[in-house]
Design goal:
Length: about 150
């Protein structure tokens, strides 16, 4: 199509607009999905992963393509992607463990979440941050600033 545009002395974009306006030429539009440029082997691998109920992000990492490529193929094939969900964990159980002096690190490992996730759920806003082992830090950020000011 670029050759045709050059032959008639107009830009590729202008030619595309004119042909789309005519209506009798099928042009690629948002309703007309673009072609996938994936080898058939990768397409089959993506289809198999979707059938195994893997999430879009997991499939993209495994096949080494972008998540949008996975989504486009799923839409084109009429396949349903599994939504990635955050892990659900028992906050009350975590509170009980913390009351029994279990560290944030140990709670996080058992619950399958990050240490800071546990800390945020178990501590009210404005509470001084504890270190990852669950002990109160000996120097708060406010006192660090004043210590530097006093020594300088």
């Amino acid at each position: 199509m670029r050759e045709i545009a050059a032959k008639h002395g107009c830009s590729f974009q202008r030619l595309s607009v004119l042909l789309r306006e005519r209506g009798d030429v099928e042009m690629r539009t948002p309703a007309h999905p673009r072609a996938l440029r994936l080898p058939p082997g990768k397409q089959a691998e993506i289809r198999a992963a979707i059938e195994q109920k893997m999430t879009q992000a997991e499939i993209a990492r495994r096949v080494k393509v972008t998540p949008s490529t996975v989504k486009r193929l799923a839409d084109r094939e009429g396949l349903t992607l599994v939504k990635g969900k955050r892990p659900k964990w028992d906050v009350e159980r975590a509170r009980e463990m913390r009351a029994a002096e279990v560290t944030y690190r140990e709670i996080a490992a058992e619950m399958g979440v990050g240490i800071m996730t546990v800390w945020r759920k178990l501590n009210p806003v404005g509470c001084a941050r504890n270190d990852v082992a669950g002990r109160a830090s000996d120097v708060s950020t406010a006192s660090r600033g004043s210590a530097f000011a006093a020594s300088g």
